[in-house]
Amino acid sequence: MNRNIQEIITQMTLEEKASLCSGLNMWQTKPVERLGIPSISMTDGPHGLRKQGDLADMSSKTVPSTCFPSGAGLASSWDRQLIQEVGKALGEECQAEDVQIILGPAVNIKRSPLCGRNFEYFSEDPYLSSEMGTHHVYGVQGEGVGTSVKHFAVNNQETLRNSINAVVDERTLHEIYLRSFEGPITAGDAWTVMCAYNLVNGEFCSENEDLLTDVLKERWGHQGLVMTDWGAINERVKGLKAGLELEMPYVGPEHDGMIVEAVKSGELDESVLDRTVERLLTVIFKGFDNKKPGFTYDQEEHHKLARRTAAECMVLLKNEDNLLPLGPQQSVAVIGAFAKNPRYQGGGSSHIAPTRLDAAYDAIVEMAQGKVAYAEGYSLKGDAIHEDLIAEAVEAAAGTDVAVIFAGLPDSFESEGVDRTHLHIPGSQIELIKRVSAVQPNTVVVLSNGSPVSMPWLSDVKAVLEGYLAGQATGSAAADVLYGAVNPSGKLAETFPVTLEQTPAYLNFPGGKSEVYYGEGLFVGYRYYEAKKEQPLFSFGHGLSYTQFAYENISIDKDQVKDTESATITVTVRNTGDRTGKEVVQLYVKPLDSTVVRPVKELKGFEKVHLEPGEAKTVSFTLDKRAFAYYNTEIQDWFAETGVYDVLVGGSSVDTPLSVSINVISTAIPFKKVTRNTKFYELLAIPETAPLASELMELSMERIKQMGAMFADSMDSGLTELFDAVVHWKKYDGLRSIGGMIGGMSEEKLTAVIDALNQKLGL
Fold it and tell me: Domain Fibronectin type III-like: where (predicted)?
């Protein structure tokens, strides 16, 4: 329906405008009935619909909905279309339950494996996280239901999340933490964005103008609304000025009154409030107009999708002697309380009431033709070692061909609101694995956890299947993979460390009582391990299959491009095994000679391909400026510097057998104006200034050589080498080095040179 929103705003009273800026209750917006402004509903997500039967009654039961794998698992599929399918299903369930906005996806970066909410987040890599989030948004909003990309921004811990100040440098902020949000907001056109509780560089996210206006609205062009996380408000009027539209939930009339009084006193220009109301009405009417009254969905089909998705997300970490897949005739000891009482989702606001729940034990009994024994192994109540339970498990394992232990993190070990303090699974489970594997060499461990765990027992078992928190179909999906009905194709979207001390943020997580310093900078996840040459337990992108893949050929359509152009990389991958399978082809870009600190390489492309035995397929990637760029803080934009880059392709971050090089020519200027501190290398890379810069640098170097000759007789060989190093680094000096007594140029002449350079560049 076409409406004149501006006309509606002119008819609203000041009080009505202010009232729209906060909710009606916990989950709904306020209506203005006299003007035909409806109320719309929102509920928690992001991997399932968490809707209370009565949105106005906090005590009402949550309606059943399909519980899909949480974000940690979904990202491990590396499958854009699968994520979009899940999003579509979520949108359908929202329509069936008369919900207009689902709160998700959650795209914060996994800075530390200790973050209690990592089970909801996609990845340690911003490109992968952004791609997953974008396709989640595509799926949901394609059904006429809005998303709320969260938590904007730099919300990477639960410790003191309401008050912690995240101190992060500008380049890291843009390259790592904001980059993760960019795709869902710009490409996905998410209806809403949810701001985080914490502060970023001294300003609460709810009133951070740099984030909410400069980046989100002006740079990224977001046309929707910004809402608070529930209770993430500091100063209401300051937040509204900064770009915060909607406060959730409703806490009473006081905050609306603050807005009214600010307008009346002149503190707040009413035009700012009008722009806020325009954004609110745009989303409210969009949600209302896209309603599908009477819509229903097929619960069984959604459960089948949940099962297929869970199996696609599971990561085979180890498979010694090809123990997996299991043969149906093998006798199996199914061990662990999780086998009958699965841990399938995380704790907190995303807790779903599933439409059904599959247990692994039941699914294995259904698939197996041989003997299936069961032993509880450990208690879900506490972490005490129960000798009787372990003895029963040992006896069961010794009497079968294979033992499959279901282990992982219980609810008490990870949840929204609290961070973990270690990487261990419960001691009772560690002892169980140790004792069972001692009597049964064919031991498999299936993990249920929302984030990495340490594995001191890894060498004792032959196979490990990482199931993450795989949703309501976790049990049947695990059985599908264990018995080979599904060939595992998941890949880790995060690095598994050997120890906590090895992790990038170890010295700076979770910070002090008032702030946390992001001292690792750009070096998050695999970027850190590669730069430090650290060997993790399992690398980013790692994941095994029941077949094998060969990377055969790589080609590039041009070996040199300007930063205004793109290049196409083509790769051939073959299934060399005897089973149908899927491979995640990963592409990384490696700068060979950068003038700034950069990671060794970064993920810039991926594609999941289905291959029959013996089949080969070509996969193409298009690389544009952003694939080679870093965030230049001087120009506050992305900048791809001139130079040679290697493009590496393979099956994981540490397995990239194919490579090709490309020369990138920058056409951009990496500074706003030439100054005394502009570097020679920056000017040498620009055609308009390169001749003069080269002449100036040569004159300066000649001056240095002349001064060096004066002391040549007194120099030993070590000092000569030092002098040579000074000459080598000359191009990284600023123009001011050519002035004064050392440089030999007068201030007047230096100023004239700088003016000439600016004139050449039109600055």
Answer: 583-653
Q: Which residues pair with 247 in a beta bridge?
A: 22
pLDDT tops 80 at residue 161:
yes
- For residue 95, count CB atoms less than 10 angstroms from its CB and return exposed for 0-12, middle for 13-18, buried for 19 or more: buried
Count of residues making up the chain: 763
> DSSP label at 514?
S
- Cα–Cα dist 496/336, whole Å: 23
User: So what's the pLDDT on residue 735?
Assistant: 84
- What mean pLDDT comes out for the span 670-681? 92
Of 593, 630, 599, 629, give the one whose Cα is nearest residue 532: 599
In the numeric block, the tokens 């000096």 are attached to: 733
Write b or e for each residue in 580-605: b if 16 or more Cβ atoms lie within 10 A of its Cβ, otherwise e.
ebbbbbbbbbbbeeebeebbbbbbbb
Could you tell me which CATH number the domain at 549-665 has?
2.60.40.10
In the chain, where the domains are located: 1-37+193-289, 299-532, 549-665, 680-761
Q: What is the pTM of this model?
A: 0.96
Whose tokens are 């029963």? That residue is: 392
Average the pLDDT over each of 73-82, 481-490, 716-725, 735-744 and give the range with the smallest value: 716-725
Structure tokens at 326: 């299991």
Question: What crossing angle do the helices spanning 427-439 and 387-398 adopt, rounded to 10°?
Answer: 30
Cβ–Cβ < 8 Å for 108, 524: no
- What distance in Å separates the CA atoms of residue 148 and residue 103, rounded to the nearest whole number? 5
Query: Shortest CA distance to 522 belongs to which of 129, 179, 153?
Result: 179
Residues 6+ apart with CB under 8 A from 435: 390, 393, 394
- Using CA of residue 40, residue 46, residue 48, residue 52, what is the dihedral sign? negative
pLDDT in tens, 486-511: 999 999 999 999 999 999 999 999 99
CB atoms within 10 A of CB 762: 7
Position 356 scores a pLDDT of: 98
pLDDT, tens digit, 9 for 90 and up, residues 464-474: 999 999 999 99
The CATH homologous superfamily of the domain defined by 299-532? Glycoside hydrolase family 3 C-terminal domain (3.40.50.1700)
Q: Which of these, 346, 339, 436, 432, lies nearest to 384 by C-alpha position?
A: 432
- Kindly write down the DSSP assignment for every residue of 36-77, as one continuous string: TB---BEEE-SSS-B-BSSTT-TTSPBPPB--PPPHHHHHHT
Between 80-96 and 299-313, two packed helices, what is the crossing angle to 10 degrees? Answer: 150
- What digits encode the pLDDT tens for the residues 207-245? 999 999 999 999 999 999 999 999 999 999 999 999 999
Q: How far apart are CA 427 and CA 408, in angstroms?
A: 11
**What is the reported pLDDT for 55?**
80
Structure tokens at 44: 């928690």
Ranges of H-type helices in 546-689 = 625-628, 680-684
Q: How far apart are CA 426 and CA 420, in angstroms?
A: 13
Q: Cite the active site residues.
A: 229
